[in-house]
Amino acid sequence: MDESGLIQAACQGDLNAFNGLVLAYQDLVYSQAYRMMGEAEAAEDATQEAFISAYRNIRSYRGGSFRGWLLRIVTNACYDELRRRKRRPTVPLEPVAADDEEIESPSWIADAGELPEESVLRAELGKQIQHCLDELPEEFRVIVVLVDIQGFDYHEAAQVVAKPVGTVKSRLSRARMRLRDCLQAARELLPGTYRLVDEGLR
Amino acid sequence: MTKRISDREWRDLSAYLDGQLSPKETARLEKTLQERADFRAALEDLKTTRMILRSQPKLRAPRNFTLSAEVLGVRRQAKPARQPAFTFGFASALASVMLVMVIAGELLFSGQPLAAAPLAEEVETFQMAAEQAPAQELAQPEAPAELRSAPEEMPAVTEAVVAEMEAGEASNKSLLPGAEPEMGAMEYPAPSVSDAQASAIQDVEVTPSPEPSPASPTVTAQETKIVGIVSADQAIEQEEATQAAPASGQPFWNGWRVAQVVLLIAALAFAGLALYRRRMGV
User: Fold this and answer.
1) How far apart are CA B201 and CA B186, in angstroms?
2) Which DSSP category does A148 fall into?
3) A108: which residues sit within 8 A by CB, 6+ positions away?
4) In angstroms, what CA-CA distances link B132 with B129, B137, B229?
5) B13/A173 CB distance under 8 A
6) CB neighbours (10 Å) of residue A136?
7) I want to staple B191 with a disulfide (CB 3.0 to 4.6 A). Which of A51, B27, B34, B124 is the partner?
8) Distance (Å, rounded) from C-alpha A8 to C-alpha A15?
9) Residues contacting residue B52 through CB under 8 Å, at least 6 positions apart
10) Interchain CB contacts (distance < 8 Å): A and B
11) CB-CB: which of B11, B41, B67 is closest to A173?
């Protein structure tokens, strides 16, 4: 059964048909949630919440990009959770050194297994990218994740965030500029081909 | 001299990278790129940043998120946990609305405090009884003659009352703003004990004088009321003895105030509970 057939059957209450859609899109939805939340457990919760909400409200789907509709739901779930966290901030599990300074990459998190240097660098780069994404305002983060990580075009991204294409263009530009500045701080992690050209442009 | 790249130019560079500029905008930007090295460097930086982001491996879901009737049921049961916060909020809003209504009610009926109203009604009943007795007698033509002799028949009562009233005459007069005889004799008295006493005092004061004073033309009629008013005065004194509540001034803690305080406390308590439940995430 193709996607539209699954959607029609799900609209009739067919849970198996909806689960077919879940299997097709769960990586995409989880990836968006992870990039927005920055941690696996919260991303799982947001993903599960999004699929439940999608099943209950599938009759409100009016055609168009189904993955865009799903990502809109998971993005809203992430916004809700992030706002709730702002109201109830939690203490991070960062160990504190003797001088009350947080230790950012504690040794007890490191994998005991020996990894090749390239894998270690990639993992570190991945962490740095996620750290830079976390530093972005939510409205910038969602756009850059949609376009530069998920590979959406501007129009589809505009549908997800329910904003005009001009807003997407502007927010993406600002997000890229901020990420560029943030990644400058981790340039030693970047492979030679990824080194930024001019550090003094802004 | 190099100009800084503006936000708009950064936006155009970013959109150019993604092929999102119109042909006209593209031509203009490409011309600028040929002329300015900082534009070229900026474009390269944006391209590299985008490449770094796109180089990230696609994440895979750590488990299947397929739904089951059990998962949907559990979530459905978990939903009502938020209801108490909503219920408390609604109760707080309701109490607030009722509080506003009570305050408005007090402003509208400020002269009739809830608790003082029954007492005022009873006093008024006594005074009406006191007034009706002489009024009925005055309606009969021969009544003045009979009643004119009444003070002579009851000298002991009147003299005692006069002696008592003379002792407090100075202070009593200062407490009686409407001291004209007509007010006490002919009109319905205001629903207060002090006014009834006032009419009694005025009437008693004129009884020792056998001739009517020019300043008080209704002396004869007032004299006829002594018996009735003295009995009303006694009834009021009994009422005062049984009920210590002052009838002349409104007490602070009347029904309106009690209702306002109760509703205020309820509104604050429910609001606090709603906030607490919301903070706790239940």
Assistant:
1) 15
2) I
3) A95
4) 5, 9, 10
5) yes
6) 19
7) B124
8) 11
9) A125, A129, A183, A190, A194
10) 123
11) B11
Cβ separation of B61 and A19 shorter than 8 Å?
Answer: no
- What residue type is A34 in one-letter code? Y
CA of B70 vs chain A CAs: smallest distance (Å)? 12
From chain B, the residues in CB contact with A147 under 8 A are 18
- Residues 6 or more apart whose CB falls under 8 angstroms from that of B275 comprise none
Dump pLDDT digits (tens) for A58-110: 999 988 899 999 999 999 999 999 988 887 766 555 555 555 555 454 444 44
Q: What is the DSSP-derived secondary structure letter of residue B190?
A: P
Q: At what angle do helices B7-17 and A165-184 cross, to 10 degrees?
A: 100
H runs (alpha helix) in A97-151 = 117-135, 138-144
Distance, CA of B5 to CA of B8 (rounded, Å): 8
Cα A81 to chain center, whole Å? Answer: 13
Residues of chain B that touch chain A, judged by Cβ-Cβ distance less than 8 Å: 4-5, 7, 10-11, 13-15, 18, 20, 38, 41-42, 44-46, 48-69, 71-72, 75, 279, 281
Mark yes or no for CB contact A51/B67 under 8 Å.
yes
Give the residue from B277, B182, B142, B161 showing the smallest Cα distance to B226. Answer: B161
In chain B, what residues touch A169 (CB-CB under 8 Å)? 11, 14-15, 20
Question: Is residue A135 over pLDDT 90?
Answer: yes
**Per-residue confidence band for B254, with pLDDT thresholds at 50, 70 and 90:** confident
Looking at chain A, list the stretches that DSSP marks H as alpha helix, in order from N- to C-terminal side. Answer: 3-11, 15-37, 40-56, 66-87, 117-135, 138-144, 154-161, 165-184
Residue type, B258: V
pLDDT digits (tens, 9 = 90+) for B138-182: 444 444 444 444 444 444 444 544 555 554 444 444 444 443 434
| Contact yes or no for A173 and B20 at CB 8 A | no
Distant-in-sequence, close-in-space partners of A164: CB < 8 Å, separation ≥ 6: A158
Nearest CA-CA partner of B254 in B109, B124, B125, B127: B109
Is B13 within 8 Å of A55 when comparing Cβ atoms?
Answer: no
> What integer pLDDT is reported at residue A174 of this predicted model?
95
Token readout for A168 is 């997407």
Residue with the two structure tokens 């442009």? A201
Residue-level length of chain A: 202
